Amino acid sequence: MTNPYVDADTKTWPDLAIGLFEKLTGRGAEIAYDFENLQVHVPSRTGKDAEHAQWTLNGRVVIRTREIAAPQP
């Protein structure tokens, strides 16, 4: 299955975040997540041999996007 938010050049978490932000900007999007003792194993890089750090998340993460109009000349 192809993910529309990830292209073949996406290799890092920052690349993924940038791609997602670019897809949402200007669409009035808001994504909200509520977590309670969610454990996430975050990879250090892509690939099968990546090491993982364990993060525990509690609370809310909200991602909002908005497009700022360019100043008029």
Which SSEs are present, and which pair or pack?
Layout: H1 13-24, E1 30-43, E2 52-64
Short description, anyone?
The protein is of the alpha+beta class and 73 residues long. It has a domain at 29-66.
Protein model, in words:
The model has no long low-confidence stretch (mean pLDDT 75). The chain has a two-stranded antiparallel sheet with strand order 1-2. By secondary structure, it is α+β, with helices and mostly antiparallel strands. The protein has a domain of 38 residues. It contains one helix and two strands; from the N terminus they run H-E-E.
Helix share bin: 10-25%
Oligomer: single chain
CA-based shape: flat
**Total number of helical segments?**
1
Decide which structural class fits the backbone.
alpha+beta
Give the amount of beta strand, in percent: 35-45%
Mean pLDDT: 75
Cα(first) to Cα(last) distance is 45 Å
List its traits.
alpha+beta; 73 residues
